[in-house]
Amino acid sequence: MDDPAKFLLRRLVRRIPAQMLKATLEKWGRLNAEQRESLNFSQSKWALTQELEALCEESRLTVKHIAELEMIYITENPNQMMWHAFQLLDPEDGALAVELMQFKELFKCHLRELVRNVSVKIKKHTDEAVWIRMSWGEGFSRLSHLNATYVVHYLQTPYVFVSGLSPKNKPLLLQVLTLSTKHERIKDANLSGRKLTAIRDLLLRQYEHVFPTKYPSPLTERNQSVSNLHTEKEQAEASAKRHQMAGQAFGNGVLPALQSAVYKLETKFKDPTNQTMTEQDEPFRCVVKFSSTNLLESLRHCASSGIASTPVAPLLSSIPLKGRNYFVITDKSPSANS
Amino acid sequence: MSLLAPFNKLPTLNTASILLVESEEKFQQSLAVALVEEMTVTVNVRLARTLPLPLENDESRPRIDLVVFIINLTSDLSFRSAKASLKYLDPGYFLGKVCFMATNARHASVHTGLLDAVRQLAVSLHCPLLFAEDQTPEDVKSSARRLLTILKVASGLVPNTSALFLSNLTRCTMPLDIDQPSFD
Q1: How does DSSP assign A151-178, residue by residue?
Q2: Mean pLDDT on A194-206
Q3: For A230, which of B23, B45, B50 is closest by C-beta distance?
Q4: pLDDT band (50, 70, 90) for residue A218
């Protein structure tokens, strides 16, 4: 096994937590059963790496096979890397009919046209997502498998999620994606986060929605926390209305676990008590970042408990509505623009 | 502007009514459950987030004997909201029918300025300030018991005492060391 392969293997074993290592190796399938039995998983990671290296040498595995192992691990645990979402626009006629084999061929074909030194591996995951792992090489030098780019695309949806892409390779990859999905343009969806499942659910709107109704159904059934004859809530109606509006803005039930939202303000300073700052002509640049273990859940709670005024402000409700978490706000249009 | 007035309705026999005002709406619910368990007196509990109370409920609402403002010492917002609600109470309530209850006083993130401000408010209004915990059921039960003692007096169910007499004994005072000028 050559050096890059050893290096990749070592890094991978360090990264995969001990409990998952056994299962991942089984799924990989490149080591046969008796080799896997011979591994002692209770020893330290360093000793385990040495044993694994020896086994891989035995089976004459190359860096490509180790890259497979990495891909299997990442596919099962996508919530550790930083993902950025892109949106494909202007579909051509055949865009909706692109299925897996066609996509694979088009992708590889267009990629070869644009870049010479790149290695691609495409796999279809159980939940209809297409996973692509790409290792880039500099010019004519050897491929570096260490900083691979991962792309996740759900066929027939216009969304692509990318992680680990360097700015140099970005225009190439985006062009290849646009061509192979038969669209005309691709743009940044302004949505990024660590949890792939969360940003995917947000964009594909896979959470429980609340639709606006004129006659909300039995409000009394919802707040059953005080159900005694002698206890009564004075402002039950107002509270139920707040709940309804918060639900309409953010949704019901479990919300996608989005973890941060960034607002970049480029508006003029407005404070009547502070004359010196208000006199400045240039916009006051400010960045506001919200972060939480589940941002949408906390915003919904703010709205339903009255901390944030209802109806929910468009700046907050556009996070789930437009599916983005990076906003640039300028004076001309107070709502989000791209 | 409709003020909540203490004596503009007739009382009911052997009944006491209490209004719990809390901007977070959490502690008041467990307190309500504990208060209603009282056997000797029928306790009516009303829960609100802020005052003024909605006009629609005015007819069905009983005469409120005691108004309790629950302030979470870790949240500045709950203090401000309680302060803003005070102006919707008829001044007649402040003769022993208002009580402040502060929760989470033992929490690490309590602002000392906030505790002083709550004390100052209770002192200026001549009202008692109770400190309560809301973490376990026993804590909730003991807070409810203390409230019931004051409630029974405020609703006239204890002979030979009235709310005004009790408030002279229970009202909050600033500890002397804060009032003293410092000797440098």
Answers
A1: EEEETTSSEEEEES--TTTHHHHHHHHH
A2: 89
A3: B45
A4: low
Minimal Cβ distance to B47: which of A234, A237, A305: A234
Q: How far apart are CA B19 and CA B66, in angstroms?
A: 6
Q: Which long-range contacts (CB under 8 A, 24 or more apart) does B152-160 make?
A: B152/B16, B152/B41, B153/B96, B154/B16, B154/B65, B154/B66, B154/B96, B154/B97, B155/B11, B155/B15, B155/B16, B155/B17, B155/B41, B155/B65, B155/B66, B156/B11, B156/B65, B157/B14, B157/B16, B157/B41
Flag whether the ipTM exceeds 0.90: no
Give the type of residue at B119: R
- Whole-angstrom Cα distance, residue A47 to residue A57? 16
CB contact under 8 A, A231 and B77: no
Which residue in chain B has the smallest CA separation from A302?
B24
Locate the chain A residue with the closest alpha carbon to B76. Answer: A307
State whether A230 and B24 contact (CB < 8 Å).
Answer: no
Token pair for A232:
């009564």
Q: How far is A235 from chain B (nearest CA, A)?
A: 6
CB A134 within 8 A of CB A128: no
Contact A234 B54 (CB under 8 A): yes
Q: Are residues B36 and A234, on separate chains, in Cβ contact within 8 Å? A: no
How far is the C-alpha of B6 from the C-alpha of A195, rounded, in Å? 55
pTM: 0.81
